[in-house]
Design brief:
Blueprint (H helix, E strand, L loop, with lengths): L3 H11 L4 E6 L3 E7 L8 H12 L2 H4 L3 E7 L1 H8 L2
Parallel strand pairs: 2-3
Antiparallel strand pairs: 1-2
Length: 81
């Protein structure tokens, strides 16, 4: 069974500079992914970057992944820091 920390590791390893928070029950996961590489990209392009980082695991190991993708600036604006 896939654990949230597995997904976190896969994304952080394959998406340069990403900071990832994952929660989930082994079948359905929620992720917040912060990455400077998302700057200037549409949400669809950002999600494609995450799917690429996960590779075939999205087809075989991860049943459902809901994600919020943000640049560091967007995250700072959200938190007011």
């Amino acid at each position: 069974m896939v654990r949230p920390e597995d997904i976190k590791g896969w994304i952080e390893t394959n998406l340069n500079g990403a900071e990832v928070e994952i929660s989930g029950d082994g079948h359905h996961f929620e992720a917040e992914i912060i990455c400077a590489g998302f700057a200037g990209k549409s949400r669809v392009q950002q999600h494609q970057m995450v799917y690429s980082a996960l590779g075939d695991r999205m087809k075989t190991q991860i049943h459902a992944l809901s994600m919020q993708t943000l640049t560091p600036e967007e995250k700072a604006a959200q938190t007011g820091s």
